[in-house]
Amino acid sequence: MKLSFLQMSMAEGDSLATEPVEKTLSIWELVSSGGPGGIAIMSVLFILSVIAVYIFVERWGAIKRANQMEGNFMEGIRSNVLAGNLDAARNLCSSEDTPAARMISKGISRIGKPLKDINAAIENTGKLEVSSLETNLPTLATISGAAPMIGFLGTVIGMILAFHEMAAAGGQINIEMLAEGIYTAMSTTVAGLAVGILAYLGYNILVSRVNKTIYNMELRATEFLDLLNEPA
Q1: Residue 196 CB-density burial (10 A; 0-12 exposed, 13-18 middle, 19+ buried)
Q2: Residue 9 pLDDT more than 60?
Q3: Do residues 99 and 166 lie in contact, with contact meaning Cβ atoms separated by under 8 Å?
Q4: What pTM was computed for the model?
Q5: Where are the alpha helices (H) located in 95-174, listed in sequence order?
Q6: What is the pLDDT of residues 104-124, one digit of tens each?
Q7: Which of 77, 75, 78, 138 is nearest to 102 (CA)?
Q8: What angle is formed at CA 184 by the lines to CA 178 and CA 185, rounded to 5 degrees?
């Protein structure tokens, strides 16, 4: 009986000794635990994430403003052009800070010239407006592709650090010696993928909204050209 009691006590002692201790990491500890290499990679990814967020917010507002046009805008243009009051039509375009209004204003300034010239002037203005709408979108696309690669660079650096520690330790390998390299590898990979995925989603959302704006611009331009083709 005494022997069994001692065995039970030893088993309970072993279970208490091997019970895992839960440890939580703060964001700063997660960033800094990878050593200088990990901090450098994470700093680059942080800067890229700030740039990506700035581009998305700034472009979202610009594209939203580009689509804000009064519902009776084309009706006002139509009535003024048919009445021969071109100055009023240009003033109406100036009151609307949108790409479509600037295209119509360019077309009004060419009234009296061949329809081909008017169409070319509207088309050239439209190209400039589309280029303005797509400002910084290539940068956002670059971040969506570069961020995961930078994260993988951190992975490679972390694995190199881990293998260097293993080589330096010879036959006495301690898991704590490998922790810095493994942290660098894992944390930079996750951060790079997170920044890349968010930038990719933001890029596709903005491209979708730009395409919708281009469709509205083409619709307004067609309405204006149809107006000029109407019999007097």
Answers
A1: buried
A2: no
A3: no
A4: 0.76
A5: 99-109, 115-133, 137-169
A6: 999 999 888 888 899 999 999
A7: 77
A8: 90
